[in-house]
Write a structure and sequence with these properties.
It catalyses: ATP + protein L-histidine = ADP + protein N-phospho-L-histidine. Pfam families: HATPase_c, HisKA. This protein is of the alpha+beta class. It is 62% helix and 13% strand. The protein has three domains: 6-117, no CATH class; 137-213, Helix Hairpins; 222-369, Histidine kinase-like ATPase, C-terminal domain (Heat Shock Protein 90). It starts with 5 loop residues before the first helix and ends in a 10-residue tail after the last strand.
Amino acid sequence: MMKLTPREKWSLIFEGVVTIVLLLLLNLSLVVILNDLLHSNPGIAGGVYMIKRSLVIGGRYIWSYQNIFIAVMILIDCAVLYWRLIRRYHLYQMNHIIDELHYISDGHLEHRISFKLNHRLQRVVDSVNSLVDSATQSMNDERQAERSKDELITNVSHDIRTPLTSIIGYLGLIENNQYQTDEDLVKYSHIAYLKATQMKSLVEDLFEYLKMRGTEAELTINEINFSQMLEQLAASYELEASRKQLTITSTTVPDNIMMEADAEKLGRVFNNLISNALKYGENATFIELNAKLKGNEVIVRVSNDGREIPTAALNQLFERFYRVEESRSKETGGTGLGLAIAQSIVERHGGYIFAESDENLTSFVIHLPIHHDQPLQQP
């Protein structure tokens, strides 16, 4: 509850005393006027006397007009006194709210109005707190977006500068005829080509990531046979998997799962996950794509039995440019954007994605709604 200051308490007491004095003077004035009226009008006095005689119980009159008048005036006086005091009290409450608002507006955005008031003013307090929460959240989001943009520029600059430096270096050797044999020329040209390809991959992934994160990204939603899509994806990677001595399989329960989705974008998600398993699933012997229909959602697991991902890295996997092992990622040509793109596409479909890993199995788990207009809530 809101606590009044000593000054406000004394002000309320003074208000009550003044109100009582004024009411007593008013009551006395009315009594005098009524007495004069009855004495100067015998007809009215006689009528009051006849009414009084008609209301007799046990030989006693149960009322007199003076008693009735006093009782009524006491009730009215109490109502007026209460109204005056509660009105003044609400005014003090409003002043306290205004003081709190001034305190918050001075830069104390972490402060909230904590006291409890009557129903109407409590709605004002709750609205003010909600407004401050919303404004604070918006400011934090804006700061985070600014930091995120700066980090993005820094990371892109770093990731582009590295291959670009190599390209310029090797092309510089060729330009200045600093090679001895044709084999050296072919070697330098090939390295420059690989680095240029790496840059192209980074730029394409970056463009795809920004497009999926932007509000203008649109999905082409159609009804697709999700089971067939997973089967086709597994088949398309069989040759590459066999070269790495891996088996890749897909199973769905039931056999034909129909859902609403953008097949092209969803295919990009699983392409990224399968490619990651092939690149980084060290010592793995299989990759499994398993999907199960549960209620109004499809739960998909892309699993492999490769080396365990450290627990500390699991929550960071979907951050852009994050690599579990920087050196190994560079060797395999990873841009660090694949999982961030996958997460953005899954979220655009109204679902969510996370990773699990132990010494036996590493899985990327995706929850997707059957109907695109019924997004899921991440637990």
